[in-house]
Design a protein that fits this description.
The complex is a heterodimer of chains A (247) and B (554).
Chain A lengths: L1 E6 H12 L4 E7 L2 E7 L5 E8 L5 E4 L2 E6 H9 L6 E7 L4 E6 L2 E6 L19 E6 H12 L4 E7 L4 E7 L4 E6 L6 E3 L3 E6 H10 L5 E6 L5 E7 L4 E7 L7
Antiparallel strand pairs in A: 1-5, 1-7, 2-3, 2-6, 3-4, 4-18, 7-8, 8-9, 10-14, 10-16, 11-12, 11-15, 12-13, 16-17, 17-18
Chain B lengths: L2 H13 L3 H13 L5 H10 L17 H12 L5 H11 L2 H6 L23 H13 L5 H13 L4 H11 L9 H12 L3 H11 L2 H18 L12 E5 L1 H7 L3 E6 L3 E7 L4 E5 L10 H10 L4 E10 L8 H8 L5 H7 L1 E12 L2 E2 L5 H12 L8 E3 L2 H13 L4 E5 L10 E8 L5 E11 L8 E10 L2 E8 L5 H12 L2 E5 L2 E4 L4 E5 L2 E4 L7 E4 L2 E5 L11 H9 L2
Parallel strand pairs in B: 1-10
Antiparallel strand pairs in B: 2-8, 2-9, 3-4, 3-5, 5-6, 6-7, 9-10, 11-12, 11-15, 11-16, 12-13, 14-15, 16-19, 17-18
Helix pairs in contact in B: 1-2, 1-9, 2-10, 3-12, 4-5, 4-8, 7-8, 10-11, 10-12, 11-12
Cofactor (chain B): Mg(2+)
Protein name (chain B): DNA ligase
Keywords (chain B): ATP-binding, Cell cycle, Cell division, DNA damage, DNA recombination, DNA repair, DNA replication, Ligase, Magnesium, Metal-binding, Nucleotide-binding
């Protein structure tokens, strides 16, 4: 059983956060809210999302599991105007999701969850450095690096206490430093890892610029990025594996 | 099997120049396949650079550019698809280009879950990922394909990357053909080559045959049958002459060679599937064939035939028109209004659970006749009479088709084989411009037309006869020729007319033979009328000397 009413914005944010990594996902319809966990085909980038029941106008679920085609569902959510509500109801028998936006009714065929890539185990990482900053600063870092390279190095200088971004291109380089004054918070620790911009650019798309984002970093370790959405009633964690640094 | 092990085998095979040694090496590969069925089946395909069975027309549907992009992403910092393309231009071959990069720079999250480093890529994982890639469709599917391919390249060593890139772009080229795989299956699992060959013909699936040979041996192979819905390769013809046909067989089975496109119809008693010659499913593009099946078929069958495009009067249209219909994916109904197609069937491979491949052609045709009565049936004449064959050929040409097929009446149906059992009549090698020096009045309906024309070559100032063209001319054309030639009649005796040399015909033929029948001392075998040489007079006609030259060069 699943029946819910949610704002179009919240639904879109939820879907967009996941669709930057995968095209299809499983959604757990728990009693206290939604849970989505997915990893890209190369097992490099992962998303772990939860949306509390309180984020919905109304929410009833009893622990079901559905598989959805994200771009399809995003298209439907995109039909709603700002402020409109979307009503979702699962038909257990036909395994279809009935979606209603005002007078618009859409019946979405679901995907067999077994045909969707297995949900990842979440690595239990103890990352030494933590950086809290605004989404727009991540956006700026990614943009700057993208001008010269397809990779980005993120690190924390624990002696001088700043967070930095490095990108090395064939000819040009980019370096950006953010001191504690520029950041919301910085917990120094030894951290420097190289990441593929292909992934980070996609993740960046889903991070609202005005949101507080927490980065956890280590030495040649995956990065974790947390942020909230839907007034804090939704939580997204991205995790991205590093590239081995050639030199 | 690990993909790395496959790559090592492939590299050894590629380095080996001798065909027999290659068979040994492929045999080794099959013996090393490990117990899982999947692995052997996949290896039997991968080694030929295939991902899917031959009967399955699924493709990866990934462009070279997407493959370069995946390689670039896996290759490391600041390598772009354009760089890969530049390397390719220099190196000339994608395998070597891929092998030139260092992959694996991108770590997976798995490396941090405490489960140790990522496992080595297996043949099965590569296969599963490629199947996923093939099934990705819709918006963004090209990106998804690149992601999936990247996930593979990222885990490849140089050698693995080389063969992965080649499989993806269908450029395996390690010297392994279908025959190699057949022989290797026979050697690896100790079964006779001809039985493997038969199993391959009916199943059209190298992977499955390899597995059956290993698991069930000869008995299993022999039990493989045609399956409705799984296309087999079409039997093919080679070029040949009427002379070849009648020398090889007592009688020839003669049928029209339709100017259409080959189709294989599978009907399971309810559903119809139509496949093109390269085994693509073209059912949706050809509703006429589906309707034909619904109307005329009752039992499950597999039929071999052609679809012909026809105009409103039912006359055939050029081959291009048929192709236009084959490629049509949308608006089929509209296309159908513009160009209608009709199926014509000439062979029957399977009826109601019974495979007929090994039955003689004439028996298969008899089954076909009983299934179809007259509708959509290609007539088969059995004859050893060259004049009759000539007539069939002429009728076929007159009806707008390509000529005739000559088939061995006793031959089995050999899928995928271009053998001597089916001959398509060779087009004329050479044509001659010959003077019409005589004719005969026709009979019956054609009594008022000059019908059979006596042809001559120039020999100095005189003309010597060399053959007759009897048919292959439409009524309209005959009336026109009669008009022209009547003015030149010298004498008449019964039906036979002597003409003064005036009109020149362009005539095709199969060969020139010495012959006492004609005054030139030579005769044309299977002459055909091609047209009137309006630009030539009798003085421009071919000389006996030239005919001697041509005969000498045969």
């Amino acid at each position: 059983m699943f029946k819910a009413i949610v704002s179009a914005e919240t639904l879109s944010s939820t879907l967009d956060s996941v669709s930057v990594l995968v095209d299809e996902c499983k959604i757990h319809l728990e009693e206290d809210g939604l849970q989505i966990r997915a990893v890209d085909p190369a097992n490099v980038g992962m998303v772990d999302l939860s949306l509390e029941a309180a984020a919905f106008e109304s929410y009833e679920a009893d622990g079901g599991l559905i598989g959805v085609d994200l771009s399809r569902l995003e298209d439907i959510a995109g039909m709603a105007e700002s402020g409109q509500l979307v009503q979702l109801e699962l038909d257990e028998e036909t395994r279809k999701l009935h979606i209603q936006i005002d007078g618009l009714e859409y019946t979405l065929a679901l995907i067999d969850p077994d045909s969707i890539r297995q949900e990842p185990d979440i690595p239990d990482l103890d990352l030494p450095a933590e950086v809290i900053l605004e989404g727009k600063d991540i956006n700026r870092s990614v943009k700057a690096a993208d001008m010269v390279s397809d990779h980005i190095a993120l690190g924390v200088d624990d002696a001088d206490e700043f967070f930095y971004v490095n990108a090395e291109g064939d000819t040009d380089d980019v370096h950006l430093e953010l001191t504690p004054d520029d950041l919301i918070d910085l917990q120094v620790g030894s951290a420097h890892s190289l990441f593929s911009l292909d992934y980070l650019k996609d993740m960046n798309k889903a991070i609202p610029t005005d949101t507080e984002v927490t980065l956890e970093l280590g030495e040649e370790f995956p990065i974790k990025m947390h942020f909230g959405f839907a007034e804090g009633q939704g939580q997204v964690t991205y995790m991205l594996a590093p590239r081995i640094q050639s030199d | 099997m690990e993909f790395a092990a496959f790559a090592t085998h492939a590299a050894e095979i590629e380095a080996e120049p001798a065909d027999l040694e290659i068979v040994d090496l492929v045999t080794d590969l099959f013996e090393d396949a490990g117990d899982a069925d999947d692995d052997l089946a996949i290896l039997a395909r991968f080694v030929q650079g295939r991902v899917f069975p031959a009967w399955d027309s699924t493709t990866l549907d990934i462009g070279p550019r997407s493959c370069y992009e995946a390689i670039a992403r896996a290759a490391g910092q600041n390598v772009s698809a354009a760089d890969v393309e530049d390397d390719l231009a220099e190196v000339g071959e994608i395998g070597a280009v891929a092998a030139g990069y260092e992959f694996g720079g991108q770590q997976g999250l798995g490396a941090f879950t405490g489960g140790g480093s990522a496992n080595d890529l297996t043949v099965r994982e590569v296969h599963e990922t490629l199947v996923d890639l093939a099934t990705a469709e819709g918006s963004g599917s090209q990106d998804r394909k690149v992601d999936l391919l990247f996930s593979l390249f990222n885990r490849c060593s140089s050698e693995e990357a080389c063969y992965l890139a080649r499989i993806v772009l269908s450029e395996m080229r390690i010297g392994v053909g279908e025959g190699t795989v057949r022989d290797a299956i026979a050697a690896a699992f100790d079964v006779p080559v001809d039985r493997v060959e038969r199993a391959l013909q009916v199943s059209n699936d190298y992977g499955r045959v390899a597995v059956v040979a290993r698991e069930e041996g000869l008995e299993g192979l022999d039990a493989l049958d045609l399956e409705i819905g799984r296309p087999v390769q079409a039997m093919l013809a080679q070029a040949g002459t009427v002379t070849d046909a009648l020398e090889s067989w007592e009688e020839a089975a003669v049928e029209w060679k339709y100017d259409g496109a080959r189709v294989q119809l599978h009907y399971d008693g309810a559903e119809t599937t139509v496949f093109s010659r390269n085994m693509e499913n073209v059912t949706d593009a050809l509703p006429e064939v589906v309707e034909f099946a619904a109307e005329h078929l009752e039992e499950p069958v597999i039929l071999d035939g052609e679809v012909v495009a026809v105009d409103d009067a039912g006359d055939p249209l050029p081959f291009q028109e048929v192709l236009r219909r084959f490629r049509r994916k949308h608006d089929v109904a509209k296309a159908r209004e513009d160009v209608a197609v009709e199926p014509v069937f000439f062979d029957c491979l399977h009826v109601a659970g019974e495979d007929l491949l090994d039955e003689p052609l004439v028996d298969r045709h008899a089954r076909l006749e009983s299934l179809l009565s007259d509708e959509g049936l290609s007539t088969l004449w059995l004859t050893d009479d060259t004049a009759k064959i000539e007539e069939i050929d002429a009728d076929a040409l007159e009806s707008g088709h390509e000529g005739i097929m000559l088939k061995d009446p006793d031959s089995a149906y050999s899928p995928g084989r271009r053998g001597k059992h089916w001959l398509k009549r060779k087009p004329d090698v050479e044509t001659l411009d010959l003077v019409v020096t005589g004719a005969e009045w026709g009979e019956g309906r054609r009594a008022t037309f000059l019908g059979t024309f006596l042809l001559s070559v120039r020999d100095g100032d005189s003309f010597e006869t060399i053959g007759k063209v009897a048919t292959g001319i439409t009524d309209e054309r005959l009336a026109e020729l009669t008009d022209r030639l009547e003015a030149h009649i010298r004498t008449e005796e019964g039906q036979t007319v002597e003409l003064e040399p005036a009109v020149v015909f362009e005539v095709g033929y199969e060969e020139i033979q010495s012959s006492p029948t004609y005054s030139a001392g030579y005769a044309l075998r299977f002459p055909r009328f091609l047209g009137v040489r309006e630009d030539k007079g009798p003085e421009d006609a071919e000389t006996l000397e030239r005919v001697l030259e041509l005969q000498g060069s045969q």
